[in-house]
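Backbones bend. Shown next:

***
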Amino acid sequence: MTVPASLRMPAPDAITLDDIIRIYEALRGQMPAARSVPGGPRRTGRLADILPHVDALVLDGFGVINIGGSLIDGILDFLDEAEARGIAVMVLTNGAGQGADASWQKYRNWGLDLARAQVVSSRDSLEAACRRLRTAAWWRRWVPPRARSASGGS
């Protein structure tokens, strides 16, 4: 993606909603075009009904894989069928209390044949972003020293 020379990027700690919309509009021409589905959208009775029509799946862990400590009925068969069809699967977890390693291990203990790289956590993404930004002025200004040291920041 090429950023137009005329596009001025605000400082990360000063970005506003108007800035986000302006940036999106400036880059819109470089983004993939929306595609219509032949015949329009269709309803299905089961998630498995979409498998013949997709190349990849991004699944939310809670509500698709499990609810609490229980697997969703049929998820093991669904994932087996996706694998048999060569469909790439990623599982997203928004559980802030634990990273993707813990979620992946939980899924493995339940018998899901997922590689560690197939499980992505919002917590891990936030921690990675914090490590990259830990030297930024806003980080030092807004994040207490104790929290900075706990996340590897300075």
Notes: The chain has a mean pLDDT of 83. Residues 63 and 72 are 7 Å apart (CA to CA). DSSP finds seven helices and five strands in the chain.
